[in-house]
Amino acid sequence: MTISLAMIVKNESVCLPRALANWRELADELIIVDTGSTDDTVAIAERHGAAVLHYDWIQPGHKGAARQMGIDAAGGEWVVVLDADEIITDPAGLRRAILDAPPERTGFCVLFENYDDEGKLTLRWYQNRVFRRGLYRYRHREHEMPCWCGDGEPAEFGVNIVFEHRAPAGRGPVKAGPMLDRLRLDVEENPGDPHPVYFLHRQYLLMEDWKAGIEWGARYLALDHDRDLCECYGNMASCHYMLRDVQGAIRWLHNAAAEQPHRRIWWIRLAEMHMSAGQWNIGLAHLRLASELWPTFEWQWEPGTYGAGLQALIDKCQRALAEMHHTH
């Protein structure tokens, strides 16, 4: 059994050496698809032993097609997909998990951790980045994902091997425009597909275009699909809050809490909304409820959902209520 590591890159001379430092502990071959680098990226890839392919990137580009080019060229039974600004924290452990996989296993969802420019953990999520070659194909120009194309149902398994995402400072604003163009084309080219509609909605949120975020969130929620809606509810709440519609934000968060009452984050966000409106009693009640919930894995992890962050919010409510009582 062999393992291929596949990547797409463009002008990644800063990040690539870090990403490739220990790749031989994981894979038997390294396939890198360059999409038009003008720096030392290709030379760095070749020094690390990569087979480098060149994808003809025509703006705004198609990341799914570029990624699939590398996978089609791979010779391994298993493929691991990595980006240049990501680090596999335990490549040898991931290799063992792959080699020990039973024949029916089709893929692994690894644990992603996103770090900001200051090195603080901001998000955590699971994503399928490890799979048997030939059973999945990449789609979409942006936020491309491996889509099942085998017979029957996929048998994917979560594994707590961490992929750290550490993008260089200032990269987001540079990429925002092309990402938006690719997402718009994805929506146009895949009518009725909720995947690009959701990510277009989220991109407007990240660009702080709150009205467009609400418009595309409503379009996503109107589509017929069985996907988790709660992240969209949370995004809609953020848009309404930034437009100074606190009650609208509260309504969306109630939708999320109704569907996922076990998740602390919705109760904490509801508490923060009521606190912003001076409703300290309601905020404190939501925070106490959150503190009593079992601390399960959060899809979008935030420091405030655990430990000191949650306690600090409770203390803030209690101080505000004490001051109100003293005033009266």
Explain how this protein is built:
It is a single chain. The longest helix is centred in the last third of the chain and has 21 residues, at 307-327. α5 (171-189) runs antiparallel to α6 (194-206), α6 (194-206) packs parallel to α8 and α10 packs antiparallel against α11. This protein has helices at 16-20, 41-47, 63-73, 91-99, 171-189, 194-206, 210-222, 230-242, 246-259, 264-276, 280-292, 307-327; strands at residues 3-9, 29-34, 51-54, 78-81, 86-88, 107-115, 121-132, 136-139, 145-148, 156-165. The strands form two sheets. Strands 3-2-1-4-7-6-10-5 form an eight-stranded mixed β-sheet, sandwiched between helices. The protein has a two-stranded antiparallel ribbon with strand order 8-9. By secondary structure, it is α/β, with parallel strands linked by helices. The chain is 46% helix and 19% strand.
